[in-house]
Amino acid sequence: MRIIESAYVHIPFCTHKCDFCDFAAVANMAHLEDEYTQTVIKEIEQRLARTESPVRLSTLFFGGGTPGLVATSSLDAIVQTLARHVEIASDLEFSLETTPHAITDLKLKEWRALGVNRLSIGIESLQDDELSAIGRDHTRDQALRGLAMAAEYIENINLDFMYGLPTQTLSSWSKTLDELQELCARYPQIKHVSAYSLELAVNSPLLMRFPRNSDAYPEEDAFASYFEALLLSLARSGFDHYEVSNFARPGYACRHNLTYWRNEPYLAFGVGAHRYVDGVRSANFRSLNRYLREFQGEEMHEVIDEGTRLKEGLMLALRMREGIDAISFADRYGIDVFTAYNDQISKLQSLGLIEVEGRRLRISDKGVLLSNSILTEFI
Length: 379
Hints:
Blueprint: E1 4-11, E2 13-14, E3 26-27, H1 33-50, E4 55-64, H2 72-85, E5 87-98, H3 105-114, E6 118-124, H4 128-133, H5 140-150, E7 157-163, H6 170-186, E8 190-197, H7 206-209, H8 223-236, E9 240-243, E10 246-248, H9 255-261, E11 267-269, E12 274-277, E13 280-283, H10 288-293, E14 300-303, H11 306-319, E15 324-325, H12 326-333, H13 337-340, H14 342-350, E16 354-357, E17 360-363, H15 371-378
Parallel strand pairs: 1-4, 1-11, 2-3, 4-5, 5-6, 6-7, 7-8
Antiparallel strand pairs: 8-10, 9-10, 12-13, 13-14, 15-17, 16-17
């Protein structure tokens, strides 16, 4: 039985829900913060009482929504509940997500006192017209001010960016990347960058203003240029590309997210939260009102059999730029990937989408943008 080393806590509250957002997030519901906090505490206590696997937390991640908006006392109450019920490692990686305009000197002092040692700031773009196009409620100047304040208190900062945005061009993306390079040089506290291509949810309000066929979006065949510019820019700043959408200075890959990509178990609490515990993947209700009423209920519950576990392990490992070490993979899953998937590997290798180095298999640089299609070949 594998030790559970990671826990995720979802905080749904926002000042404004972005037009592209498909997460369990709500705006103008701050009056429910106390009730929500107490519900999460009850969920933690009751779920942990039923958890069979041993727990020793080495990573804790508050995501959202905008956890940076809520009172630090609410975060502290949740942390203290966890500390009463499970062992917490002395070198805990404690991440907190926030928007840049939620950052204040007072909150930074409180977060650091709470134990937060990794801050993830959702900047998304450094161009005001692009921020407006996707419905963000902060500006470029607010992003820069928030980062400057954060760098005075937190030594491990992640910045989130997006590309493929409406009104975005390769030129404007290059301007954002040039400024990001300057920021990385100015603030060595920026240890990590996440950069994602915009994905439009079916019910996204963004589609009302910019339908999928809108000329405001970059051309499909331009995405390779956007991605290449991203790779080059972050390589110049000394960042390693360690996962499809994630980059880190050496030694600063996100330990919490590595739990997901290495197919390890993890706890999760709060509205819409997904967990992998005792061989079961499950998710809480996405409706805030229903979660508050039925916090032990589940919108999804799947017992992971050996076949599914193998497919998930393969898919997640190939997202990592280091790929799959066939020897350790065989030790864990009981199969030789080169034998079991010989036809798929040969086909993808001939297309230049897969690289083989000894007993290691990885998606090539050329194949990264096509990773979802490549993974489909295997699963």
